[in-house]
């Protein structure tokens, strides 16, 4: 379960801490061996099993999503690279319809709103017009029911977002209808990163959109998605040797 919920970088940190604790127990309390060392690094396993959608797979999925809230939610998730909790905490005040952007400044976990997990997670993400139009439609639809306040959540009603249980239940329904391969909701972030990388976007921009604290985090997590430049290097060398 833990592999499904956290990034490879975070899993590596967990493994390092656990390994240090067991080494301490070996040295001072007679523990026979280090279970963390025997089990191996979480990161290696999580990188092997990274799952994401290609663009065509996302299109196949989103075409069957008929609920305006879910269509806007999953489209924003895919095209922004934001975390699920960051979108569930999003309020109408966080959307700039003139600049086509969303301001990520808080997150939700277990129905509690807290600051983002890191300083770099505070960020403004530009979105394509298609997604902004979906959010506008959602706002217009919500306004028909009740006067809209800026601190109301975008993906829910009034101050309460969609519950995680409801979100996952309906997500699984759309997965089944679309016939696309299942991925975790968190893996929409991997899908966004893959989409940007395939378009040739620099690691720095990918890191900024994902809210990574530095580019090395992005490269450590997604280096296997970047195409090899070895052939290009040799081509330059061959040209100089002519």
Description:
With 242 residues, the protein is mostly helical. It folds into 2 domains: 2-48; 55-191, hpI Integrase, Chain A. Helix content is 56%, strand content 8%. The protein contains 13 helices and 7 strands. The chain has helices at 2-5, 8-29, 35-39, 42-48, 55-62, 68-80, 84-88, 129-145, 164-178, 187-198, 203-210, 215-222, 230-241; strands spanning 95-96, 101-104, 107-109, 112-114, 123-126, 156-157, 160-161. The chain has a 3-stranded antiparallel sheet, with no helix packed on it. Strand 3 and strand 4 (112-114) form a beta hairpin. Helix 6 packs antiparallel against helix 8. The radius of gyration is 21 Å and the shape is globular. The mean pLDDT is 87. This is Site-specific integrase. Residues 48-235 form the Tyr recombinase domain. Keywords: DNA recombination.
């Amino acid at each position: 379960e833990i592999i499904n919920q956290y990034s490879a970088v975070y899993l590596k940190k967990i493994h390092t801490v656990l390994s240090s604790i067991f080494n301490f127990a070996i040295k001072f309390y007679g523990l026979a061996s280090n279970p963390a060392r025997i089990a191996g690094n979480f990161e290696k396993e999580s990188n092997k099993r990274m799952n994401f959608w290609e663009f065509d797979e996302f299109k196949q999925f989103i075409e069957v999503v008929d609920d305006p809230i879910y269509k806007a939610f999953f489209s924003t998730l895919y095209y922004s690279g934001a975390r699920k909790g960051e979108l569930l905490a999003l309020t109408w005040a966080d959307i700039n319809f003139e600049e086509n952007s969303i301001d990520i400044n808080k997150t939700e976990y277990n129905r509690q709103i807290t600051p983002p997990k890191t300083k770099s997670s505070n960020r403004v993400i530009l979105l394509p017009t298609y997604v902004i139009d979906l959010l506008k439609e959602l706002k217009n639809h919500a306004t028909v029911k009740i006067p809209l306040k800026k601190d109301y959540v975008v993906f829910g009603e009034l101050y309460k977002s969609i519950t995680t249980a409801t979100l996952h239940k309906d997500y699984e329904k759309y997965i089944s209808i679309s016939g696309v391969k299942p991925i975790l909701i968190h893996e929409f972030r991997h899908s966004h990163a893959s989409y940007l990388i395939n378009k040739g976007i620099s690691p720095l921009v990918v890191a900024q959109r994902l809210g990574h604290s530095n580019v090395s985090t992005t490269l450590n997590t997604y280096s296997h998605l970047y195409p090899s430049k070895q052939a290009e290097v040799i081509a330059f060398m061959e040209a100089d040797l002519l």
